[in-house]
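> @MW can you paste both from yesterday?
MW: sure, first one:
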Amino acid sequence: MRDLCPALQNKTYFNYGGQGPLPSPSLEAITASWARIQKLGPFTADVWPYIAKEVNSTRRLLAQCCGVPPHRLALTENVTSGCVLPLWGLPFTEGDRLLISDCEHPGVVSACVELARRQNLTIDVLPVKHLRGDQTQCDAAVVEAIERTLTPRTRLVVLSHLLWNTGQVMPITAVAKQLHQHPQQPFLLVDAAQSFGQIPVEDAAAAADIYAFTGHKWACGPEGLGGVAISERVVAEASPTVIGWRSLRDESKVDLSSTDLFHHDSRRFEVATSCVPLMAGLRCSLQLLENAGSAQQRWDHIRSLSGKFWQALEGLDHVTPLLEVPPASGLVSFQIIGDVPPTEHVKQLGGQGLWIRDLADPSCLRACTHITTTDDDINALVAAISAL
């Protein structure tokens, strides 16, 4: 897998949580698909069966990855659209409350803020940023925190599967069961940007009401293509928001007297024209990952690498990992004690061909290990951090 990624040949790369490298076979699959469409004619009777096959096979594969039937999987362009499109269609009432964790991405948080402003909703905060220890204790603490912060009017809970800043895994299936017992049965929206392609996601995706992911991070696919798994009740109760011809049961015409215009499945949250060749690229990347081992095997390998990195950081003076125990994923966030801002550290490391990133909340540095990471990569990064 590593040898297939040109981006990994001339640098030491630890930014899989931002964007994964695209393997050459995936790029070739994209260009081959584009060539096929042009040969058939981009808008001819001959091209539609090919496009339908690409769309349907991609939907089936992503649904299989998420442990849901295909009618519950909508194709999207990115995580944000996967979260926001069904979110804004949920049946809220003035005075309802949204419970959002304090580790959510600004793209999702800002959408909730604007939704609350327009519909007169109230936002409550679920504290999880401080949870940085044993997974079992963390799981129990999350359930307890939700129990404390839920109100009779809570209608939605927003919680990432894998926190993008601290690297802590959230107990999504346990939270889903907990919410099901609440009188309001709040919807559960899960940002899966850091989980899909890295850790097993089937149970969490099947349990959540909205489970939005992208193909361009840990799955090493092209940017511009992702998906969202939605529950049966979201299919039944949520209205389409951003509407286009792909939302419609009959895209050829609109009957102004009809009250039943939209698909009765996840496609009501799809909009309009997307880049079909990207689908071949993502399927190829997912197959390459599968060739490298099962989801569990890949996760075990990623954790072994991140554990080595975390352990090495623990041994450095003036360096503090955010997590108190070895990470449960490939995300390793840490702080370098001193007066130099994290952005400057990123620049200094980048000048040596070592690529990590800085985060604002909490202020820290983040490096990600994947199955393509090597011990030499880790040793080089640790040595450079020690020199800083």
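MW: second:
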Amino acid sequence: MKVRISRDRLVEGIGWAVRALPARPVVPALAAFRLKAADGTLAISAYNYEVSAGIEVAAEVARIGEILVPGRLLADIARALPRDQPVDLTVDPARARVTCAGAYFALPLPALADYPTTPLLPETAGTVSASAFAEAVAQVAIAAARDESLPVLTAIRLHLTHDTLVLAATDRYRLAVRRLPWQPVTEDPARTALVPARMLADLTKHSGIDTDLRLALGPEPGRRGLLGLAGNGRHATTRLLDHEFPRYDWLFDNETTAVATIEAAALIEALRRVSPVVGRNAPVRLSFGRESLRVEAGSTDEAEAGATLPVALTGEPTRVAFNPAHLLDGLAALRTPTARLMFSTPTKPTILTDGTPGVPDASLTSGTSGALGPGDLDAPDYHYLLMPMRGA
């Protein structure tokens, strides 16, 4: 193999593939990047039995070939090289030699035969805007559990219909749901998959894909199903979880007693202002009046703090208490300057959505219950349900 590639393209390729490089490989060969030079490109890939990631970057290929090189070591070397300089990669029977700007590095070559077979991308199910999908994953992943004792709660549920993707995640104390359009390529695209939330968030964060993203779903012989992502010369797969995601549509079948509209940044600032006196596992208390909101934390026996800010409330004045970190997560995920909070009875979840103008509050204008069913989730398309805490 003999390849010349710009330092920046090499770093870009390594930056994508490194997310599938295991920290503690069960097989020594998995600690390596797989490099394949052919047809004017250098393909860089990694695999850890759960996730695979690969990318093709433009390169001058004088001699084709395929090798393994120590992954972390090559990543450290590439980042240390000067910007805007060409990097020459040559291979002899025993070493891979990296040369750039007068410096050289000789790396050992793990045996290619020891590298396991990496999964192929499943059949494409459809395409979606890469930026919109990345945003949706980030909005939903905040509600996924971190505790691995219940794997199903660490996942994002991805449901495919004929025109809509629905992403959902919950840790039992909150639920995030996001809908977005997509373009299926099959007549019957209806599928449901459970994707590890942290893996999916990592694969979509800083993906560098600014066009369409191909979604691929399918089984791998003898193993669990796979989700594949591909676009702009990058591809990745992640194994799916084989669990039953809890039903959540019934959580929207609640009577709406009040709706508050507030500037999201102002509420975030108020929550942060009172945070120094919030004790461990203690809530913040929110008292919604007709035109003002009082945010309070702490107690009269110890430190106490409060802040007042304007709010527009329709319906009954409401007092509620929330986990402050959970509330902040939901507010940060919104895409509009204003936030809408829809309240129900004290033991029912509060629904937080974008402050989209012109969306009617059915319960307050028609006298009906205002129950929000699954088919109504597209107005607006992001919903964050938050269970209240005692202490209001």
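> thanks! The first strand starts at residue 2 and ends at 6.
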